[in-house]
Amino acid sequence: MMQNKKLQSINKQQEYNEYVQQKIPKPSYVKNCIWAFIVGGLICVFGQFLGNVFKGMGLSKEDVATAVPMVLVFLGAFFTGLGVYDQLGKRAGAGSIVPITGFANSIVSPAMEFKREGFVFGVAAKMFLLAGPVLVYGFGSSIIVGLLYYFLGR
Fold it and tell me: Which InterPro entries does this chain map to (predicted)?
């Protein structure tokens, strides 16, 4: 009797899982890739445009290489604060995450979400919630590659 109830429960669970799988919308991978390519490309084109403008203003190559990421990070943070970047991310996916503006978004979004918990335990503690692991593994892998290059590249 008990085993029969378990089998019925398992069958109901399987039927429910099949029903859910039928109702889940199927993503259009081609469309998503095209949107990511277009939006990511436009962000990069805008970065190149900024570089050309700064170069035209007489900035040195090193100053342009500093100014362009600063402006892009600022704009990414600013548009995240306005809620525009999140809407862009819903449409573009990885196209909005991969450029440097996505880094700014990953810093500002958790800070805004946890601001009600205060500046220390909310904003400061949660600011690097998304970007922290990326930074840690990025720094760690760059150190390993640098050491390998130093010892094996000579």
Answer: Spore_V_AC (IPR014203), SpoVA (IPR005562)
